[in-house]
Amino acid sequence: MKNHSPSPGECGNPGQICPGLALLDSLTTIRILSNMAKRKYRNGISLFGYSIFHPINLILIVNVLVYILQLFAGGTGIIEYYFALTPFRVFHGHYWQVFSYGFLHEAYGIPFIHLFFNMYVFVMFGGLICRYVSAWKFTVVYLTAILTGGITVLLAPVLNEILGIHYPMDLFQTTTLGASGGVTGILVLFGILFPETEVFLVFLE
């Protein structure tokens, strides 16, 4: 009798995760992605089981390359000034910061920590989502989440002024950077697709 691994469409409702994937932890995910990475694509190099030109890999590569540029620019230098999100600068013409902040990470303190955890969660959940969702839908969700996060940060000081809330920090001058907005969008999408999945992020039950 041949073993049969159920495909995504054989698990009940469309988008419902198979029973075999109902319990997800970090080690299991790493094994899944490692096995996927062994497969070869006819159109060239693959990474995490997807073509190097798949959005999940392109987004990862862009974030890493931008981080390297930040390091060469001195950590908190000119790149952060022009591309990290600071509401005061956005209101004075740096409109692109509402989006560009999502591709920068902290380049000071402990190296790579901010970038590593954002990209780890992105690949861990995004790699599984992309098995059930088309590449363009995945990209739209990620980029929309970055933009939504940027607009939220931008509106926070304005709402504080309107409501008369006295915050200890000047939110107009506070700088925000990182892919957390986009990663949050991916986590929300994962929760919508697989609402009953148990996730253990620290390798413990």
Automatic annotation (TrEMBL):
Where the record annotates domain Peptidase S54 rhomboid, the positions are 93-197
A Pfam family recorded for this sequence: Rhomboid
The UniProt entry's GO CC annotations, sorted and at most eight, read: membrane
Q: Which UniProt keywords apply?
A: Membrane, Transmembrane, Transmembrane helix
User: Matching InterPro entries, A to Z?
Assistant: Peptidase_S54_rhomboid_dom (IPR022764), Rhomboid-like_sf (IPR035952)
Predominant cellular place of this UniProt entry's protein: membrane
Q: Where in the cell is it found?
A: Membrane
Give TM segment ranges.
47-69, 115-134, 140-159, 171-194
Membrane recorded as keyword: yes
According to the UniProt entry, its GO molecular function terms are: serine-type endopeptidase activity
Q: How does it sit in the membrane?
A: Multi-pass membrane protein
Tell me where on the tree of life, at the top rank, the source sits. Bacteria
Protein's name according to its UniProt entry? Peptidase, S54 family
